[in-house]
Amino acid sequence: MTNHIRIAIIDYGMGNLSSVSNAFGRMGYMASITQNPDDLHRYSHIVLPGVGAFGDGMKNLGSSGWLEILEEEVVEKRKPFLGICLGMQLLATMGTEYGLHKGLNWIPGTVNRIVSNDSQIRVPHVGWNDVQILKKDGLYKNLEDSQVFYFVHSYVFEVENKSNVISGLTCHGIEFVASLEKDNIYATQFHPEKSQKIGLKVLDNFVKSTFKTNA
């Protein structure tokens, strides 16, 4: 199976690319970091990682020529896509970090800062936290109902239609979306590449759960 899988990791200047590439490599998958939007035609799977501000992320995607090709490859051709951290947030309609910024609008919703009335809750949210798993046929196949993953973020994705696309929830002062699954689009607020064996299992499930539809 792995001979037919080629994973593109998009380099749009928003960090943590090598750790994602190395994580896929540890499982025997070929994952390449690319700065060239035209390269996506040659890959079976697309990964958008990222750390940083929402507005900067969208600006970088636009200025580097990624927006049109992502729409073509992911929305029109329905190639398997995984967004990680900022890469998940950019799927939203709008982000509110340092002003209002339009997102990809693949999953309707807004990205807002974590706000809690508990003075003990620190923002940014950094460290390990439990994820309550709601769907077990995609990213979390063959995992228990609750798992621990590594988070680094200050903003969360508030999804409009919560019943259809949320596959995992976490609580840090507030309950928020930890992961999304909609057709060929998958996303995690946590960093699977930094979440040890369970994180690698999530990445492996992403590839395996999407391979048949993309073969």
Description:
It is a single chain. This protein has 215 residues and is α/β, with parallel strands linked by helices. The chain is 27% helix and 32% strand. It has helices at 17-26, 54-63, 66-76, 86-89, 162-165, 196-214; strands at 6-10, 30-34, 45-48, 81-84, 94-95, 101-102, 109-113, 125-133, 146-153, 155-159, 166-172, 174-182, 185-188. The chain has a nine-stranded mixed β-sheet with strand order 2-1-3-4-13-12-11-8-9. The protein has a four-stranded mixed β-sheet with strand order 6-5-7-10, covered by helices on one side. Strand 11 and strand 12 (174-182) form a beta hairpin. It is globular. It starts with 5 loop residues before the first strand and ends with a helix. The relative contact order is 0.17. The mean pLDDT is 94.
Chart the SSEs and their pairings.
Elements lengths: L5 E5 L6 H10 L3 E5 L10 E4 L5 H10 L2 H11 L4 E4 L1 H4 L4 E2 L5 E2 L6 E5 L11 E9 L12 E8 L1 E5 L2 H4 E7 L1 E9 L2 E4 L7 H19 L1
Parallel strand pairs: 1-2, 1-3, 3-4, 4-13, 5-7
Antiparallel strand pairs: 5-6, 7-10, 8-9, 8-11, 11-12, 12-13
